[in-house]
Amino acid sequence: MKNAFFVTGIGTDVGKTVVSSILLEALQADYWKPVQAGDLAFGDSDRAKSLITNKKSQFHPETYRLNTPASPHFAAEMDGIEIRLDAFQLPKTENTLIVEGAGGLLVPLNSIETVLDLIQKLKIPVILVSRNYLGSINHTMLSVEVLKQRNIPIAGIVFNGVPNPATESWILNASALTCLARIGNADGEVDRSFILTQAELNKESIIKILTI
What's the angle, vertex CA 209, arms to CA 147 and CA 16, rounded to 5? Predict the structure, then answer.
């Protein structure tokens, strides 16, 4: 495998799948969602596949497909199973791999372990997605702090949503992170055209930072 990166967010609904799709398009990378909780008829893998135009990206099957749209530990409990870290193995591929997590870093997978533990097990760098909203500085810096405490490398940060230069510059200065991309709001629904446009706008920095 060339490179693998774990896309995580500062919380839920910050745009991880949109960002993952942009990365797939820019890098023509493969995609893997380790845990899908709910929306099994059209999950994040299906959405990402529907948003990209390149023919090289391959989509690897989820390790766990859970019926309930809830925290993975509870969704697994509802299905009568337990998520085990030793069940997760990076898919075999010669391509760059984008791994999309569930929720934020401390979302529980079972009674003890979290998404953070999964990242540590996979031993791959993180791409952190931050969305500009009131309180996002706190949420972003908390995420950065917990990643640093675990010695998990952060490949870069993506700012998603309405630009806020004051917030973004403060986070970059305080965290010493590299800005991988800035993704604006879509006019209407996110579609293939939006993903392709954002991939082209950010392609140079994405390739430069992630293919060193």
Answer: 55
- 139 CB contacts (<8 Å, ≥6 apart)? 10, 11, 130
- Tens digits of residue pLDDT in 161-184: 999 999 999 999 999 999 999 998
DSSP H/E element including 74:
helix 72-78
| Tally of domains in the chain | 1
Q: How far apart are CA 113 and CA 153, in angstroms?
A: 19
* DSSP code of residue 114: B
Mean pLDDT across 38-45: 93
Question: Residue 12: its pLDDT value, please?
Answer: 87
CATH at residue 100? 3.40.50.300
Mind telling me the catalytic residues?
A: 33
Q: Which of 99, 79, 74, 77 is nearest to 89 (CA)?
A: 99
Domain carrying residue 203? 4-210
Per-residue pLDDT, averaged over 129-144, amounts to 96
CA distances from 94 to 43, 133, 177 (A): 25, 38, 28
What is the C-alpha to C-alpha distance for residues 89 and 113, in angstroms, rounded to an integer? 16
**The pLDDT of residue 63 is above 90:** yes
Count other C-beta atoms under 10 Å from residue 85's C-beta: 14
CB < 8 Å & 24+ apart, contacts of 46-50? 47/17, 47/21, 48/17, 48/20, 48/21, 48/24, 48/100, 50/192
